[in-house]
Amino acid sequence: MIAALRDFYGSSQHRMTTPATAAPNPALRAVALFEAFKGLIVFGAGFGLLALLHHDARQVAEALVTRLHVDPEQHYAGIFLDAADHMTDAKLWAFAALALAYTALRWAEACGLWLNRRWATWLGASSGAFYVPVELYELWHKPGPIKATTLLLNVALVAYLVWMLRQGRGTHAPAASPRR
Questions:
Q1: What is the pTM of this model?
Q2: 61-70, long-range: CB within 8 Å, 24+ apart, which pairs?
Q3: Is 67 exposed, middle or buried (0-12, 13-18, 19+ CB in 10 A)?
Q4: Which of 31, 35, 15 has the alpha carbon at shortest distance from 167?
Q5: Do the Cβ atoms of 3 and 67 come closer than 8 Å?
Q6: How far apart are CA 107 and CA 161, in angstroms?
Q7: How far, CA to CA in Å, does 31 sit from each of 35, 62, 88, 134?
Q8: pLDDT (tens digit, 0 to 9) for every residue of the chain, 180 residues total?
């Protein structure tokens, strides 16, 4: 298994460019670091969820809302407190598992982008494009500078990754395997 992974990651057929011209791409590496950071945040959140096991989630949520000086009567604070009220240990384990899966996906993408792998560029472009309709919906219904900036950055990121895919077209075709 390790040898197969080493062969896959070491193989030039999965890179965006050929080994002779492969130089570290600072923009692609910046995207890789950003994806790794997103994975790290969700990883921490997953452990935070596990810290709530065998505790009163409602009490912890109320303490958090109070500490952040949020009015508990506000709509989103009420939703948060209601969700905490219905939280069970099984749900906490499930959310923590989802956080771990998301983290693994982000870290795999970050590693692939860092190593200039085409599959990671596809993964980044498709996962980034997945969020654009949601961000448009949110911006349309409740416009704000943070939502607009998030949408613009995400669209720029997706456009850059698609551009990278188009630039690398045809330069990484798998070598013909010898016939036996």
A1: 0.73
A2: 61/85
A3: exposed
A4: 15
A5: no
A6: 17
A7: 6, 36, 36, 21
A8: 555 555 555 555 555 554 445 577 898 999 999 999 999 999 999 999 898 888 888 888 888 888 988 888 888 888 888 988 889 999 999 999 999 999 999 999 999 999 999 999 999 999 999 999 999 999 999 999 999 999 999 999 999 999 999 988 533 444 445 555
Residue 121: closest CA among 135, 110, 131: 110
How far is it, in rounded angstroms, from Cα 155 to Cα 161?
10
Q: Cα separation of 24 and 135, whole Å?
A: 31
User: Nearest to residue 163, comparing CAs of 36, 34, 28?
Assistant: 28
Q: What gap in Å lies between CA 83 and CA 86, rounded to an integer?
A: 5
Query: What are the CA-CA distances from residue 54 to residues 9, 40, 50, 59, 94 (Å)?
Result: 42, 24, 9, 12, 15
Contact of 120 with 112, CB cutoff 8 Å? yes
Do residues 32 and 114 make contact, with C-beta atoms less than 8 angstroms apart? yes
Q: Could you tell me the two tokens for 40?
A: 């790290």
3-state secondary structure of 12: helix
